[in-house]
Amino acid sequence: MSRVHIIDHPLIQHKLTLIRDKHTGSKDFRDLVDEVATLMAYEVTRDLPLESAQVETPIGIAHTKVIAGKKVGVVAILRAGLGMVDGILKLIPAAKVGHIGIYRDPETLKPVDYYCKLPTDVPERDLIIVDPMLATGGSACAAIKFLKERGAHSIKLMVLIAAPEGIAAVQREHPDVDVFTAAVDECLNSHGYIVPGLGDAGDRLFGTK
Predict the structure, then answer these.
(1) Low-confidence ranges of the chain (pLDDT < 50)
(2) Among 47, 108, 176, 208, which one carries the catalytic annotation?
(3) What is the pTM of this model?
(4) Of the residues 24, 86, 104, 150, which is catalytic?
């Protein structure tokens, strides 16, 4: 069964409160999502393997550690996932970025895919799927399926807010994929929105309705 990691660092929780606030405008919303993505990335990448190294300091030789050549990929679920990519790239600038376009049918609440562009070496990378919301889990499960079909075997899902229903869907369909979130909210409403959530993340990021 996939594990759920709730990242409850005080800075993340404080910024998440501001993100939830309906009075937070698009610019501040974008900045806050970017900042929280950076902070969450520390925990998501905690298990990256290290190897021994040494460097010459102005005083002497330091025996240190570096990341053991592991390749990282960030895969944004369009469009709201775009708001989290730069925050991760600040920490891992060499990461490759992929995009998966999925929208939720307003009637059936099922995911519909329309775009997929990924790094050519997907099987060689530790992939982090990013999307601010894990609601029904349909989009996340579809994105994970797309990656696995293209040879991916190391996948993590990073979201700001998750609903229990979405977590259950990922655990049921992809028990090998861990979920990293800053909060698990109460439930979904009849329209498939997380309660209390933060509204439509894409609209709030880009100032649309």
Answers:
(1) none
(2) 108
(3) 0.91
(4) 104
